[in-house]
Each structure stands twice: as structure tokens, then as C-alpha cells.
Write a structure and sequence with these properties.
alpha/beta, 31% helix, FAD/NAD(P)-binding domain, NDH-2, seven-stranded mixed beta sheet, FAD/NAD-bd_sf, five-stranded parallel beta sheet, 2 domains, globular, 14 helices
Length: 483
């Protein structure tokens, strides 16, 4: 096999040319993938222009999602297209391949990738050779074998899921307002969230805020009719902000009539009935699962060393331990925390470390190509901030504890500073400003999730739209990333 790109033309129609001196393959377009590729294209600008180097980014989506803003997107405070960053615009000097990395054979320096065209043209998966590889596929939702979870659970990890959940919550209020069956009404107005980490708490808090505001426009729904339940298997929520601030967050949520159940697990949700380990049973049409994540499945299909938790075993220089020309960071990597006094401690798999690791990783690749020594990644954890809805939050930053409006403001300022590109910063700030001047939008656009349902029904007469609130196929509901 010649060492050229064994693949068809990219979406811009450009065919691979002659073999460059070095091809860097980046698997994943999230925090680590995008920031690493962005820094590499800056550092290797001359070599990229001359054709001596090539950066190929393999990602299942053509955008990077800024996940801390998903709760605000679900609540309607931010447009979904401003929560994502178009990779083709940001990574102008990289080749973007929209597809899934199915397997990595590092011994042969090749990655097997399936694309949207794989099943259409009949040519099979792509084999992409590389010289250096950056593995940053991120993570996927970690589920448990809970009966009924696969059928009725809703995730909260992608912008599609966030917008789908917003539409679903408002649709449930529409159902409750129109039904004459008290059981259907109670189930529609009961919202169960499983997982007391950032995703679960912030999503619940923002959506509860939105739904409470929305209820004023229904003639027969009061805020007290809505029942929100947070289920957490441990004895605290938001462990990243510390015990004191986590306790404050529990009191704040309970003060808003949110039922917080600690040391409790979800045993079943069959038949749309949430059964908890404390014996409680809640008929519900909304069960949101945010109970943790696990490494992307592609890591198990590599010949690289993994930890017991399925993450890549890495050095402090962000190279894969004992392997040359392989790098990793973020959720996929187990990186030693050199700032910890306890041996064996690893850096937390969060955005704060991922963005900083990407910078060091890119610099180390450039240094290695130039024959210079690589540097260790070292960063003391600054702290955490969390939003609990509009004008409410908790924070534990550099040893200082904040709550209420100051913490909420810090949450917004911090994440605004971290959103990639000035374009997105300006748009998010403009939307926040407009949201402060005008009333919330309370419209559900659930029909966007089934765009062909009405036409199919009219054209054939025998195709029924999907059930309200059911998630449509992923390829039917991409977010608008245009400007």
C-alpha cells in the first residue's frame, strides 16, 4: 500500500496529492481534537502550505460542541447553532473527514474509518495511513442494565439531545394541559433526572426554571403542578464544587420544590414508571439519564495500552505510554497529575484540563518533529462553577466559595472566555443581552425532529408521525451551524 490517503475526495472535492513528509491524524473533533488541530495548523503553517505536512481530522460531526452551554441551549437562553463551532471554518488548513474511527492498528500506522458514504458507494471503510496520531474521541454516555432505560431514557450529551429535551418538556406541558386523564397529566408533569453531576444538575435547574416560567401561559397548569426529581446514587451532588457548595446546591434545589434523592438509584423505568431503590414509584414520561460517561468504544479496538477503566495509559507528556508517535488527552486519556501530592493521581476528565492538555500536546508533537524534547503537562485545578438556573449558581474557585448571583455571573464570564472564536463569543454575548431585555421563548419545535412526517402522511396516507417526544434518527436532525 502506498503511503497516500486511501480515501475518496473530501467534501470540498480535493483529492489527496503526493505523500507529505508527515501526516498527523487527529481522531475526534471535541475539545482536544479541535484545539490540538487548531494549534498544529498555526505551528506548522509553512509546512502545511508547502505540502510537507498534512493534518487530517476524523470526527463523526462537522462541529465541536461546547458542552457547558448545553443546559442554556435547552432552556432557550442560547441558540443551538451558537453552542457549536463549525470545524471546516476554524480548521481551514486541515482535511476534515466526517466519519467514525472503527479501528486503529498502530503497528501498521493505519486507522479504519467509516463515513456517510461507506454504505452508499459499496467501497467499504477507508484505510487512512498516518505518521503521528492523536486519539481524542471523547466519551459516550455510561449506561447501566436498568430495565426500560434503553426504551424510555433520554441522554443529555449532544446539542441534538438538549434541543430535543427542551421540545419534549414543553410538549409534555401541552399534553398535560389538553388531557382529561389525571394519570396522563401527572405522568406528563413528572420529570426524573438520574445523575447529580454537572450535566444532570445544570440541565434540571435550567429546564425547571424554563418550565416554571412557561407555566404562566397555561390556563390550567401552575408551577406547583410540575414535579422535578433528581436521583443521585451517592450522598452528594456536584462533588467538584466541594461539600459545602454541594450542600448549598441541594438546599437551593429543594427550596424550589425539586425532590432531591441522595443515596438512591434507579432500579427500573419499564412501562414509563420510574422505580427507585428507596421503593418510590413515579409514573413519568420524561427520564433523563446523566449518570456518568465512559471512554469511546474505538479505544478498545486499538493495539494501544489501556487502563482498567478503558482509557489510554499516557505519560505526563501526553504520549501513549511505551508507544512512539501516539498521543492522547481529554476523556480518552489517563494522564498523571503532577500537581497532586498523592502518587498515582490522574487529571480529571473535564474541559478545564482538556483545553490545556491540547495546547501542550500540539506543542509536544511540533517539538518531536523538530527533534526537541517534549514537556510535561502540569496544571493545578483552578476550581469549578455550576449554574442552577437564571441568576443562581455555585462556585469553588481558587479556594473561594461563591453562591447565588455572583457564582452565576462567574459561570457565565468563565465559559464565555472559553468559547472558541471571537465570532461565537460575540454571538453568545449578544443573545444573553437580548434575553435580558425580552421575555423567554416558550415555543416547542418538536416537528423539527420529524421533518418528513407530515409530507409522508400526505403523500402516502399510511405513514404516521412518530410518537411525541420520541427521538428521531440522528441523521434527520443535525443542528444549523451556519451563520
Amino acid at each position: 500500500m502506498r503511503h497516500g490517503m486511501v480515501m475518496g475526495p473530501d467534501s470540498r472535492g480535493a483529492l489527496p496529492g503526493t505523500r507529505p513528509s508527515v501526516r498527523i491524524l487527529v481522531v475526534g473533533g471535541g475539545y482536544v481534537g479541535m484545539y490540538t488541530a487548531l494549534r498544529l495548523q498555526r505551528k506548522l503553517r509553512q509546512r502545511l502550505r508547502s505540502g510537507e505536512a498534512e493534518i487530517v481530522v476524523v470526527t463523526p460531526e462537522p462541529y465541536m460542541t461546547y458542552q457547558p452551554f448545553l443546559p442554556e441551549a435547552a432552556a432557550g437562553s442560547i441558540s443551538p447553532r451558537h453552542v457549536v463551532v463549525p470545524l471546516r471554518r476554524v480548521l481551514k488548513h486541515c482535511k476534515i473527514v466526517i466519519g467514525e474511527a472503527e479501528r486503529v492498528d498502530h503497528a501498521k500506522r493505519t486507522a479504519t474509518v467509516t463515513t456517510l458514504a461507506t454504505g452508499e458507494d459499496g467501497t467499504g471503510a477507508l484505510e487512512i495511513p498516518y505518521d503521528e496520531i492523536v486519539l481524542a474521541p471523547g466519551s459516550v454516555s455510561r449506561t447501566l442494565p436498568v430495565p426500560g432505560l434503553a426504551e424510555f431514557g433520554i441522554g443529555f450529551k449532544t446539542v441534538e439531545e438538549a434541543i430535543g429535551l427542551r421540545n419534549h418538556v414543553i410538549e409534555q406541558m401541552d399534553i398535560a394541559s389538553a388531557t382529561r386523564d389525571p394519570a396522563v397529566r401527572d405522568a406528563a408533569l413528572t420529570f426524573v433526572f438520574v445523575g447529580g453531576g454537572y450535566a444532570g444538575v445544570e440541565a434540571l435547574a435550567e429546564l425547571e426554571d424554563m418550565a416554571r416560567y412557561t407555566s404562566r401561559y397555561y390556563h390550567n397548569i401552575k408551577p406547583s403542578d410540575l414535579r422535578w426529581i433528581l436521583v443521585e446514587a451517592t450522598g452528594r451532588i456536584l462533588p467538584e464544587v466541594g461539600e459545602a457548595m454541594g450542600g448549598y446546591a441541594v438546599r437551593e434545589l429543594r427550596g424550589r420544590n425539586i425532590d432531591v434523592r441522595l443515596d438512591t438509584r434507579l432500579d427500573s423505568c419499564e412501562g414509563r414508571i420510574a422505580v427507585l431503590s428507596d421503593g418510590s414509584r413515579f409514573p413519568t414520561r420524561t427520564l433523563v439519564w446523566t449518570a456518568g460517561v465512559k471512554p469511546a468504544p474505538v479505544l478498545a479496538s486499538t493495539d494501544l495500552p489501556l487502563t482498567d477503566r478503558g482509557r489510554l495509559r499516557c505519560t505526563a507528556m501526553l504520549s501513549v505510554d511505551g508507544v512512539e508517535h501516539a498521543w492522547a488527552a481529554g476523556d480518552a486519556a489517563a494522564v498523571p497529575d503532577l500537581t497532586s501530592s498523592e502518587p498515582g493521581t490522574e487529571t480529571a476528565p473535564n474541559a478545564q484540563h482538556a483545553v490545556r492538555q491540547a495546547k501542550v500536546l500540539a506543542d509536544n508533537i511540533v517539538a518531536t518533529l523538530a527533534g526537541r524534547p517534549a514537556e510535561d503537562y502540569r496544571h493545578s485545578y483552578a476550581g469549578s462553577v455550576a449554574s442552577l438556573g437564571l441568576h443562581k449558581g455555585v462556585a469553588h474557585v481558587y479556594g473561594r466559595k461563591l453562591k447565588g448571583y455572583p457564582a452565576w455571573l462567574m459561570h457565565r464570564v468563565y465559559h464565555l472566555s472559553r468559547v472558541p472564536t471571537f465570532n461565537r463569543k460575540a454571538r453568545v454575548l449578544a443573545e444573553w443581552t437580548l434575553a435580558g431585555l425580552f421575555k423567554r421563548e416558550i415555543v416547542s419545535l418538536g416537528s423539527l425532529e420529524h421533518p418528513r412526517a407530515e409530507f409522508a402522511l400526505a403523500a402516502r396516507g399510511d405513514v404516521q408521525p412518530g410518537p411525541v417526544g420520541d427521538a428521531p434518527p440522528k441523521d434527520e436532525r443535525p443542528p444549523d451551524t451556519s451563520d
